Amino acid sequence: MDAALKLARRAELLPDSPARTRLLLDCIRIAQAALPAAESASDVGVDLIGRCSDQALLSEFRRRPRGWSDGRTTIAGRTVDVRIVGTSRMFRGAYAITPAWDVELPPGWNFRQPGFGLPVVLRTDRCVDDPRCELYPAEGIYQWATAWIEYGEDGSPVLHVVDPARSDPVVVAGRSVHPYFDALSFYQLGASASRLPRQGVYGLIGGRGIGARAGVYLLQDYDPDRVPVVMIHGLGSNPIIWSELSGAIWADPALRESYQVIHVVFQTNAPLLISRLRVQHYLDRMWMLLDPEQDDPARGKMIVIGHSLGGVVSRLLAVDSGTTLWDAAFTVPPDRLEGSAEDVAGIRATFLIKPYPGACALILLAAPHKGSPRATSLTGRIARLLVGRRAPEIQALRRVADAYPESVRPELLDSYRLARLNSITTLQAMQPVRRAGEALLPAAGIRYHTIAGDLDGQGSDGVVPLESSLLPGAHSTLVVDAGHTLYRNPEAIARIIWILREEQGRRCDAGAEAGQGLDRNGASAGTPGSPRAINADRPRIDPASRSSRRDDIEVQP
Predict the structure, then answer these.
(1) What DSSP character marks residue 133?
(2) pLDDT tens-digit readout, 211-262
(3) Are residues 74 and 151 located together in one domain of the fold?
(4) Among 461, 476, 503, which residue terminates a domain?
(5) Using 50, 70 and 90 to split pLDDT, how confident is the model at 107?
(6) Disordered: where is this region (predicted)?
């Protein structure tokens, strides 16, 4: 073992070069050979193997990031057998391998679980030979992995690359060790290459980039038995906002086994109800590709998480509107609306909505259910002029309003005729259809939770008033001293993680009424130390007394 340690120390004094890597490979070989005779130093020996392996691979992957595949290759002039196991079914061709240490993670968050080996990210271009390929990000297919080198029975070096989340403790030189696990670097690496942040903003004024990307995206291979957690972003935004929350789910072994994270991309310039219909279509497309037989357990329960506009869309995916929305827009019943069959069918699908099958629980962050004053402010008026009105679905309303004006409510006739509708106008507090829609709560049996910001006690998160973010009958409500970006707020993420744990094993059709199953403090019975969850039939907020605890809502400083 001393000889191996001397090689490791010599290598650390050398600049990166093939000669240095050869010293590190010799360190691994000698340390591994010494282990059987050094039982008392087994941990030291395995640690030394890991140390030399990490340094050798860190240099090699930086020097040669692409072209890795199963089979024989050379590292520093030595023949190495490469064994890559547990990778995505959608990978095609050779892998690019990036050390996780080279990926920048969100500050203040730790999604790494130390262990043996070097955490890395595997990547290939998105596949094109399977219809399901469209469900993967355009930037490519990324996956976490852990790599190390050890010597085989024939005395040759072997490079192992495994999925640490699927691997039981691995045996290295006769010792059982847990692979190092990095839960987020794979996603962050893909996000760093993405144009989605810019496209999300430009999409508000008609940019086509985000529209071309619109849809539902898998971050890992689909599992027919795991519950989908569908995340819907807000106005002018993109799904990369969910990186911290996604990492928190992936880093938790129990949640990782129970849930699969799914991100929605949609162009946010369209009116609210059209955005809802589009997201519905994206989900329909996903299920058609993943479960054409319609019998997977995953289809039977989804948890939908939405931020801001995405929170309102999420709520509308869980309501039965009856004719409430229709009556706010039209003067005739649905079966008497005139127009082309295609136009009428599209309008009916937009205004007559039912809960999306399987949407069993909602988590709504900073969602303007009662509109936002920003939509009617000077900034909002400018935004209404800039935000695109090119949604083709609006043209159906224009044609019907032009041909049959008596069928449309007078207060909406001009906006329909001139196609003066977009996401900003439909978030105005006094917009008739939006006002009618705010009374629509998720259907019976669907559990919903609200998380809102009250920044510095001002009664708002800076964008959405507190009153607009809260819903009566919520299964739990949390208010934190934070701004609008609650998707990265630690308290909000902790609450979402708690809700996901509460949802584990719960049936879709067995949801308790709001507050049922909670103790007098709002925590789930039998769950000591759970965050407080409140049955808020009529939330009452008194910003002047934020330090007091109320029976109807939790306020955390």
Answers:
(1) G
(2) 788 899 999 999 999 999 999 999 999 999 999 999 999 999 999 999 999 9
(3) yes
(4) 503
(5) confident
(6) 510-557
